[in-house]
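sanity check this:
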Amino acid sequence: MDVNNMKVSDFRKLEHREWDEETQCDSIIILPAKVDVLGLVKYRVKEFIAKLFHLDLPDIWQVGHIHDSGYRCMDFVAVKDNKPLCLLSGCSDVIHIEGIGGYGHNWYRRFGNIPSSIEPGDWNIDCLRKSGLLRLWTNNHKKQCLCGAALSSFEIYSFPR
């Protein structure tokens, strides 16, 4: 199915890849985690009681789909030729374009040190017409996306085809 014709619920039905697998694709779609409304209400009640009686505050990570940072988790859909491949993460609260620090894939092996300059990226974001989800892609036809492991921080790189 073409990603432009998919609903959010269609994306949520996709299978997850293995957490430590690197995935190559043309683009990714940013899929916000569903809100665990009941869990959030329980958390707020526990938080209220803790403040009222000067107790330790409950941990936010107990609420499903909320990262321990307090931000909502995201998942990402790998896309190739406008067709969804799989879900990529589900546990990340942040995305790092060109990796943490922005130095690119395997930067230490390539540069041996923090580089003094790096080539500019060519990343773009557009909005899918039916679902309204954001899609992240590289404008360079010689590059594709390489998605790292599913960790607290999700890393994506532009990578030669």
User: Anything to note?
Assistant: The chain has a mean pLDDT of 83. The beta strands are 23-25, 27-32, 74-80, 83-87, 94-97, 123-127, 134-138, 143-147, 153-160.
